[in-house]
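Obj: model holo form, ligand = nicotinamide-adenine-dinucleotide.
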Amino acid sequence: MAVMVTGGAGYIGSHMVLALVDAGRDVVVLDDLRAGFRWAVHPAAAFVEGDCGDEKLLARLIRQHGVTAIVHFAGSIVVPDSVVDPLGYYFNNTVKSRALIGAAVENGVRHFLFSSTAAVYGDAKESPIPETARLAPVSPYGTSKLMTEFMLRDTAAAHPLRYVALRYFNVAGADPARRSGQSSPRATHLIKVASQAAVGQRTHLDVFGTDYPTPDGTCLRDYIHVSDLARAHVLALDHLAAGGESAVLNCGYGRGYSVLEVIEAVKRVSGVEFPVRLAPRRAGDPAALVAGADRIRAVLGWKPEHDDLDAIVAHALAWERSLAERREAAE
Ligand SMILES: NC(=O)c1ccc[n+]([C@@H]2O[C@H](COP(=O)([O-])OP(=O)(O)OC[C@H]3O[C@@H](n4cnc5c(N)ncnc54)[C@H](O)[C@@H]3O)[C@@H](O)[C@H]2O)c1
Ligand SMILES: O=c1ccn([C@@H]2O[C@H](COP(=O)(O)OP(=O)(O)O[C@H]3O[C@H](CO)[C@H](O)[C@H](O)[C@H]3O)[C@@H](O)[C@H]2O)c(=O)[nH]1
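Output (holo structure tokens):
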């Protein structure tokens, strides 16, 4: 009885592996390492380097490891890249998800968790955004994820498969015990980039747009700690194992912080005054993305443990320092 984690060498997937190992579960990670790191996978998990769309490999792994649930993180994640290369995004995110869902059905795996995104809402009219809001992605990335949600919905109606699609808002922070974190040097996420600036890995930080219809003119986002998110996934597996129905759940705290508030927090927690430049808007950024966060608490009984911007920032900074030490040790 094992859980298969696709993309388990990546940022969020590696934290899910930690949460599963901490919960005493058997884990097999499938990752092709295009963006992940072998060292980020906890040694208690089995690791297989391969593609999550490889049907033969999937059938073999499911049988070999007795996989009873699949948690699907693998995918391409950079919104602007998806605009330049839509077919690449539909291939890696949608076509390969179709293969993975097919392998689950054909090989008797009945529980499936899927990493979806707030990008399925596009420029939402409501704030906070409930799960029932209009689904109108404005990027191929968002559409590629929404199509996978639809495949899961329709497959669950036709076969004995139940699923939970988790729509993440802005994921940030790192394992409090410093076992993993956001490790990609090319990451574009605000808290990661600001942490890099604070530890001297970047010269400065750009604020993309100061003329949004928000209290201070910069975008509002709902930042969720990656360890709280991982725990929500463990609860979602428990929910399915207990016979719970398929569900689509926002993952956020229900509170927005502006870009300037986040930068202030990183400066306050790090004690470093890194240079900040005001820059034009970045294409495709909605003004506000804040989760309607009631449903996940009601369905999963999830209670966040790190709903505190300074704690999220402190963990992100601690991980950034770990990466710097790792680099120094390698030199
Ligand atoms: N980071 C966020 O804020 C955020 C927000 C919403 C949704 N998500 C979703 O969460 C998931 C994980 O995101 P992340 O931030 O950890 O990204 P990440 O890039 O760190 O992790 C993705 C992992 O998937 C692997 N991968 C990609 N394509 C693969 C394939 N075809 N076969 C096998 N492995 C493959 C990569 O090597 C990587 O290890 C993604 O599906 C992403 O769309 C992330
Ligand atoms: O150097 C930076 C980086 C970001 N920002 C701003 O900070 C906010 C947050 O940006 P992030 O890049 O951290 O995150 P996004 O809100 O763009 O993206 C998140 O939400 C998306 C859905 O809308 C996807 O799911 C994506 O994977 C997820 O990280 C945005 O207003 C952005 O313009 C800056 O001002 N400067």
